[in-house]
UniProtKB/TrEMBL annotation:
One of its GO terms (molecular function) is heme binding. The lineage of its organism: Bacteria, Pseudomonadati, Myxococcota, Polyangia, Polyangiales. Residues 19-156 form the Cytochrome c domain. This is Cytochrome c domain-containing protein. PROSITE patterns: CYTC. InterPro entries: Cyt_c-like_dom. It comes from the Bacteria.
Length: 311
């Protein structure tokens, strides 16, 4: 059995160090290749976002790890495919971790994990305050983007899986959703994945940062949702101007509505320069073709704003 080097365990290059940070960091590094894909930064359970997250959310949470008693630890049970509750095994699909480890497909085996839990030291008392390495700003997940658009456009946020955003086009659908909703399910699942959404059943992690493809998908999704909101003349969208307001007569009302939308979408008061840029660079050029197209472009621009798509 592998354990802490120098404490009765066989000291090998695979033995874990014994200090609080060293031993936990080594276990974090050993488990990350198998676990970080679904439990990294941005995941609903980001156990492997950092060593600090690993310690705070997993190693020292007795719901998962009981120090000194691996057999009473839910982590061991899930890794061996005998967990109880909603998650009987990890990973969720395919063979459990212990089976993969027995075939040599993981960076660490169950004996070493048990040894780590048996000799798990108390938390490092010198660590205090926030984690300086923690991610302070991140992109919104696919579900968060969908819900944020819904709220901004005056729709009730979707409950459960999948979010069903009302758009003029192809609405995204999680690949983990039940099949048979409609014949477009395959394409809708692809839209969701291209938006950066995960498929935990396929062990596909969420996208951690915006990419060219996910930004393109966001733009297309925003255009569809905004176009539909404008056509429906959503009451929370048009507060100070109508969807068919024409320039130059309606410019004061349009500018007031732009300020309203800026506050609603980005949750911060704009300054005069920002409203002027939104009016002159986005609204006015498109209004010559159609006021409705202009409002759609404004809405799309606000959804693409970094303040909207990050948290």
């Amino acid at each position: 059995m592998l354990g802490c080097a120098g404490e009765g365990a066989r000291a090998t290059t695979e033995a874990l160090p014994c200090g609080p940070s060293e031993g936990n960091a080594a276990m974090f590094e050993a488990l990350s290749p198998s676990c970080a894909g679904c439990h990294g930064a941005g995941a609903s359970r980001p156990f492997f976002a950092s060593v600090v997250a690993f310690e705070d959310l997993l190693a020292y949470d007795e719901r998962y790890v009981v120090a000194g008693d691996p057999e009473a630890s839910a982590l061991v049970a899930m890794l061996e495919g005998r967990g109880t509750g909603a998650y009987p095994q990890m990973p969720l699909a395919g063979d459990d971790f212990a089976t993969l480890a027995a075939r040599g497909e993981t960076a660490i085996g169950m004996d070493a994990i048990r040894a780590w839990i048996t000799s798990l030291p108390p938390p490092d008392p010198s660590r205090s305050g926030p984690d300086r390495e923690a991610v302070a700003t991140r992109r919104l997940s696919a579900d968060e983007v969908i819900n944020a658009i819904e709220v901004a456009l005056g729709q009730a946020p979707s409950a459960g899986v999948p979010p069903l955003l009302r758009v003029d086009g192809m609405a995204p659908l999680s690949p983990d959703s039940p099949s048979g909703i409609d014949y477009n399910d395959g394409q809708r699942r692809q839209v969701y994945l291209m938006l950066g959404g995960p498929s935990y059943l396929q062990q596909r992690p969420p996208e951690g940062a915006w990419s060219p493809s996910s930004l393109l998908t966001l733009t297309q999704l925003a255009q569809g949702a905004c176009s539909l909101a404008v056509e429906r003349s959503e009451p929370l969208f048009f507060v100070h101007a109508t969807r068919d307001a024409r320039l130059p007569e309606a410019e004061p009302d349009v500018r007031r509505n732009l300020e309203h939308l800026y506050r609603r979408f980005l949750h911060t008061p704009p300054d005069a320069a920002e409203i002027d840029a939104l009016f002159t660079q986005v609204y006015a050029p498109a209004e010559a073709t159609s006021p409705r197209a202009a409002w759609t472009d404004v809405c799309t621009a606000l959804i693409r704003d970094p303040l909207f798509v990050t948290f």
